[in-house]
Amino acid sequence: AKDSRCGVRVYRPEDDHDTARRLALMAGLRVAVDAGTLTVVYQPKVDPTTGRVLGAEALVRWQHDGRPVPPDEFIPLAEQARLIEPLTRHVLDTALADCATWRGLGHELSVAVNLSPDMLTDAALTGRVEQALHRHGLPAAALTLEITENALMADPTNARRTLDALHGLGVKLSIDDFGTGHSSLGRLAHLPIHEVKIDKSFVRHIVTDRSRRAVTDAALQLAHALDLTVVAEGVEEQDELDYLRRHGCHAIQGYLISKPIPPVEFLTWLTTTRAGG
Ligand code: C2E
Ligand code: CA
Ligand code: CA
Ligand code: CA
């Protein structure tokens, strides 16, 4: 093994193993993206006061060699391998097709799709989104795009241009993982956003940890002042839901309501749940 003097990286046998796994995953992912075999699951967003279903977030799934690979592992690989653009197009198209089905059956839902930071500087994005909406006969307001705070920081000028164009179409924009990034509340106020999503790491401790609850409280106050919708993700406990409802949170998402589920199951859930509306 080399040593770490003079800035030379320490060699660890597991590095080769990690690299081999990453390369194998990248190759497999390329095949899956090309073949369109990635699937999408849906997790409902529900009004905590009325129980009404407001929409659903689309989350991509990938089975590789018969095993699910977590998105937190393969999304970064897709970003590095320049596969994120076709992957996102596939998820967007699938999500809009499913949303059109729900609406055709009388469920006035919207669907949310996650955008990787790189996508925000892709000049073709807005046109693609517009075409996809048109293809599925959906109004722009049926689509929410979730972006992280950090996506706005890397290339603010280009990101801003894309946000303005998407906003101009009528697509709703949501700040994902709110509280984990570095943007100030003040900066968000100047962006054409519709919604903030409080990260599940804050929601998890809402009832027990005052400092983490402070982030949630600040987000709720900011959102009310700016007329933004607040969504809390990762709601697992009834007392979390109760706190969020009492403090004016507009929508909740989490295992307490439903795990992310495949489209057929989601439709069944919609028609059988008492929250369905
Ligand atoms: P995210 O956008 O913050 O999505 C929320 C994650 O929290 C999802 O994990 C969801 O399954 C999980 N979750 C939902 N409710 C609960 C709960 O009550 N408790 C806990 N512990 N977790 C909950 P998932 O599906 O594994 O996705 C992880 C991340 O991968 C997403 O975080 C998002 O950043 C990324 N991702 C997923 N699908 C896509 C996609 O289509 N495109 C892009 N660019 N990124 C995606
Ligand atoms: Ca998200
Ligand atoms: Ca999140
Ligand atoms: Ca995330």
What is the element layout, followed by pairings?
Blueprint: H1 13-35, E1 39-46, E2 53-64, E3 67-69, H2 71-80, H3 84-104, E4 110-114, H4 125-135, E5 143-148, H5 149-154, H6 156-169, E6 172-178, H7 185-189, E7 195-198, H8 200-203, H9 210-226, E8 229-232, H10 238-246, E9 251-252, H11 263-272
Parallel strand pairs: 2-4, 4-5, 5-6, 6-7, 7-8, 8-9
Antiparallel strand pairs: 1-2, 2-3
Helix pairs in contact: 3-4, 4-6
The chain binds ligand C2E and calcium ion (3 copies).
Task: Describe the protein's architecture and organization.
This is Bifunctional diguanylate cyclase/phosphodiesterase. Keywords: Membrane, Transmembrane, Transmembrane helix. It comes from Actinoplanes sichuanensis. Residues 22-274 form the EAL domain. By secondary structure, the protein is α/β, with parallel strands linked by helices. Helix content is 47%, strand content 18%. The chain has helices at 13-35, 71-80, 84-104, 125-135, 149-154, 156-169, 185-189, 200-203, 210-226, 238-246, 263-272; strands at residues 39-46, 53-64, 67-69, 110-114, 143-148, 172-178, 195-198, 229-232, 251-252. Strands 1, 2, 3, 4, 5, 6, 7, 8 and 9 form a 9-stranded mixed sheet that branches. β4 (110-114), α4 (125-135) and β5 (143-148) form a beta-alpha-beta unit. α4 packs parallel to α6 (156-169). It is globular. The termini are far apart. The model has no long low-confidence stretch (mean pLDDT 90). One calcium ion (CA) binds at residues 176-177.
